[in-house]
Amino acid sequence: ENRTFIFLLLFIMYKVYEKTFPTPFPETGGNVSAIHEQSEWEELMKKDGLALVDFYATWCPPCRAAAPVVGQWSLQYPS
User: Fold this and answer.
1) Does the N-terminal or the C-terminal CB of the chain have fewer CB atoms within 10 Å?
2) First-to-last C-alpha distance (Å) of the chain
3) What is the pLDDT of residues 21-32, one digit of tens each?
4) Residue 75 confidence (pLDDT) above 70
5) Is residue 63 among the annotated active site residues?
């Protein structure tokens, strides 16, 4: 059935990706902060200046590719 084939294909793709990129997420560097709690978010919003909010998934190749770029931006445009 098509559903079974698609599931198996996605599962195999995930396993290949998991072995290719074993680290949870690349280092961004710069002035990048990961926000995990609402209190951290509220503290950040009290500061003056701009904030770039980037939502990401650890399994997402474009997200992984963008992480170092966001780190470079944070150094290029500090606030």
Assistant:
1) N
2) 54
3) 655 555 667 778
4) yes
5) yes
Largest CA distance in the chain: 56
Question: What's the burial of 28, exposed, middle or buried (CB within 10 Å: 0-12/13-18/19+)?
Answer: buried
Residues 39-50 pLDDT 10s: 988 998 898 877
For residue 50, indicate whether it is catalytic.
no
Report how far apart, in Å, the C-alpha atoms of 31 and of each of 9, 16, 39, 72 are. Answer: 39, 32, 19, 9
Rounded distance between C-alpha atoms, residue 49 and residue 62, angstroms: 27
Out of 16, 57, 60, 65, the active site residue is 60
Instruction: Say which of 32, 63, 66, 70 is annotated catalytic.
Output: 63
Residue 68: count other Cβ atoms within 10 Å of its Cβ.
15
